[in-house]
């Protein structure tokens, strides 16, 4: 649900904040090549996976981090304090790090920063478990920082409601996607590297800069912020001051979004259907940031499943599944 592995910090010239490419002309949203196959059982966990809406790449570009719901689809970590929900797999699928047993209630988002710190986001579960907190850890699970207060809801700048994702920009600025439904907050908040509040934007709605479930965040090389505005069936694009630059609907109903360091965008669509996003099927779509055109699509038959996506330096795709829990690798044919 992320920016690329190690995105270089570019000078913020006027061109960096140029208008995002317009949405391409209409095209059959499911008629794209699929040059991938599933490597079932690639990740060797030794137990059943829980729901996964949070996957990110390590800065090495080949190891992958997962924030998992303790062997259950929804609120396993609220009930089982013996399982580690933060997991790191190497390129062979071997589990090389795991930690966090008893420390989390509802895993929802993960981000691996340039300094290799691990940021986690907990929101509000389907069963009503409330966490609404963001943590920063070392790679070995030492807690460094907490934003928000677990078990609370609110609209203040130090409280969240339906927190979904976090992103740390190359300059250290922290962005939080706060909102998961029309009953929670629907906004983006920005903090400085020390965690001091800077600004926020957004409210429930469907207009430019409004949200209905801002579910994922990513940033391109020019520093533009991409928000998976899920219930509005679009990705919204902003500069880092919250200025609206454009919207894309060609990637489906986005749950997770990931941008590689060569500016390829990958979008996990778990909820498209004839009812809520006519014409679109669920799966993973990808394309170029430069022109916004979709060039590939992995269709997936399980509805309400594939929510998280990340991509390694060789183009392998990793996907997290929630209501039909799993973690899969899609390798190139």
Textual characterization of the structure:
- The protein contains 1 helix and 24 strands.
- It is globular.
- Helix content is 1%, strand content 40%.
- The longest helix is centred in the N-terminal third of the chain and has 4 residues, at 76-79.
- Strands 1-24-23-22 form a 4-stranded antiparallel beta sheet, with no helix packed on it. The chain has a 4-stranded antiparallel beta sheet with strand order 2-3-4-5, with no helix packed on it. Strands 6-7-8-9 form a 4-stranded antiparallel beta sheet, with no helix packed on it.
- It has one helix spanning 76-79; strands spanning 36-39, 54-57, 64-67, 86-89, 95-99, 107-112, 118-124, 130-137, 143-148, 163-168, 174-178, 187-191, 197-201, 214-219, 225-229, 234-238, 244-248, 254-259, 264-269, 283-288, 294-299, 306-311, 317-321, 326-332.
- With 333 residues, it is mainly beta.
Distance between the termini: 24 Å
Average pLDDT, rounded to a whole number, is 94
Structural class per helix/strand content?
A: mainly beta
Strand content: 35-45%
Low-confidence stretches: 4-16
Q: With helices defined by DSSP (H or I, 4 residues minimum), what is the helix count?
A: 1
Give, in spatial order, the strands making up the sheet with the most strands.
Answer: 1-24-23-22
Can you count the beta strands? 24
Order of helix and strand elements from N to C terminus: EEEHEEEEEEEEEEEEEEEEEEEEE
Rg estimate, integer Å: 18 Å
Q: What is the molecular shape?
A: globular
Percent range for helical residues? under 10%
Largest sheet: 4 strands, antiparallel
């Amino acid at each position: 649900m992320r920016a690329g592995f190690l995105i270089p910090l570019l000078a913020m010239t006027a061109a960096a904040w140029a208008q995002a490419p317009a949405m391409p002309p209409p095209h059959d949203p499911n008629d794209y090549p699929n040059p991938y196959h599933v490597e079932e059982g690639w990740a060797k966990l030794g137990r059943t996976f829980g729901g996964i809406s949070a996957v990110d790449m390590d800065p090495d570009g080949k190891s992958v981090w997962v924030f998992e719901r303790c062997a259950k689809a929804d609120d396993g970590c609220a009930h089982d304090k013996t399982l580690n929900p933060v997991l790191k797999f190497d390129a062979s699928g071997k589990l090389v790090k795991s930690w966090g047993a008893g420390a989390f209630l509802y895993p929802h988002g993960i981000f691996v920063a340039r300094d290799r710190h691990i940021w986690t986001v907990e929101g509000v579960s389907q069963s009503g478990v409330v966490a609404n907190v963001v943590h920063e850890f070392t790679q070995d699970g030492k807690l460094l920082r907490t934003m928000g207060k677990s078990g609370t809801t609110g609209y203040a700048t130090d409280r969240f409601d339906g927190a979904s994702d976090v992103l740390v920009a190359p300059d250290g600025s922290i962005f939080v996607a706060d909102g998961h439904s029309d009953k929670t907050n629907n906004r983006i908040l920005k903090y400085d590297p020390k965690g001091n509040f800077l600004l926020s934007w957004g409210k429930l709605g469907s207009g430019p800069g409004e949200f209905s479930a801002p579910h994922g965040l990513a940033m391109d090389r020019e520093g533009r912020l991409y928000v998976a505005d899920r219930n509005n069936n679009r990705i919204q694009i902003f500069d880092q001051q919250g200025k609206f630059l454009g919207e894309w609907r060609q990637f489906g109903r986005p749950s997770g979004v990931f941008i590689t360091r060569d500016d390829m965008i990958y979008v996990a669509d778990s909820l498209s259907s004839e009812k809520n996003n006519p014409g679109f099927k669920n799966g993973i779509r990808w394309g170029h940031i430069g022109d916004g055109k979709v060039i590939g699509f992995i269709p997936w038959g399980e509805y309400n499943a594939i929510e998280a996506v990340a991509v390694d330096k060789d183009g392998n795709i990793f996907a997290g599944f929630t209501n039909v829990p799993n973690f899969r690798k899609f390798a190139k044919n």
